[in-house]
Give the backbone structure.
Amino acid sequence: MSDRGMTDELLLTIAYMLTSALGLYGEPAEYGVFRLIDSAARILDIMEAHDVSDPYIAGLKHCLDDEREAGMNSVRLRQSLERIVAEIAVELRKRT
Amino acid sequence: MQTLEAIHGRRSIRGFTADRITDEELDALVEAAAAAPSGGNVQPWVFLSIREARRVAAVRSLAPGIVGSPAAVIVLCADERRRGGGGPELEEMASFDLGAAMENILLAAHDMGLGSCAIGSFDGKALSVFLDLPQFLKPRLLVAVGRPKSIPQAPQKRALADLYHKERYVGRP
């Protein structure tokens, strides 16, 4: 896919993030959690579409897809996020 | 499918497969919406279906409530021309009417084996600009539609005893 394609896809994600920021002035604060997870998942979608992923990132995308499709159970979501962030920290330690 | 079975079996679907849905399926959903009751039979609505992938992606970017990648989005607009000079009360009534139309879409989608999710989180002004809507059409609700990747479990509902009273309201202080 061309750089133009990636630019367009990133622009859509930027539009999503800014529209979310504006919307959150009038929405429950908890929605911000979902918007950030969705933003991360959208960026991972773009990475996957442009073959810049690796096995860890593919697994992370799968995890986030599961979370965003599962609905709004905040207790379960928080537990999942704690696990995912702890795993990312381990991965970052390996890579640096 | 029986009506009560559809009501109790429907789920909000946020994960969709990459399969497309047909024009005929979209048409059937909008026909179901248009069959909804409305105050004074005013039918204060216009429905817009978006199925072209690039346009669906753009609508997703302006509607943070859309999770996943639906095959189509239906935009439910209040048509202010049909208010007949009425004031805020009729505008509020139009919102109720659009809610009934939306529920018809959700139930029809479930009956047709499609997945759907009602969306209230979107930027109406930005969406109006993107869709080039005339001033008298106001987007009030969206429905994301596609083929479900999986069916989520039923969410926990409030106990009927907490919300249903017979003859007299017996509430806690």
